[in-house]
Amino acid sequence: MNVGNFPNGSPQLHGEAIRTQEMITQALCALAQTAPHDGTAVRATQALTSVQRIIDEIVVHISQPNTLSETAAQELKEFITDLQQKTQVIQTSAGV
Asked: Which one, of 66, 49, 51, lies nearest residue 14 by Cα?
């Protein structure tokens, strides 16, 4: 789902898309955390690559004018920062 491509979509639609992507990134991080223990480091790397793509999409979405309130944009920036820290920890601990 590429939230950056919603043409003049409603703020509610944008918000729902972002929340969906947040849930997807949480699931992908969980997969990346467990995959190396299951002997599938490649899967962990793929999951972390997908997480980074979603982060990039959210950053594009945040940068679009008038699509989010300042509060929502700030919350997303904090979410991205937390997510980036989480992925770094996963990469370090999993050796990916």
From this structure: 66
C-alpha torsion 46→32→5→13, nearest 10? 160
Where do we find the tokens 């003049």? 8
Residue with tokens 């959210």: 58
- Rounded to an integer, what distance in angstroms lies between the CA atom of residue 74 and that of residue 81? 11
The answer to whether the beta carbons of residues 20 and 2 sit under 8 Å apart is: no
pLDDT digits (tens, 9 = 90+) for 2-48: 444 444 556 677 677 888 888 899 899 888 888 766 667 788 888 88
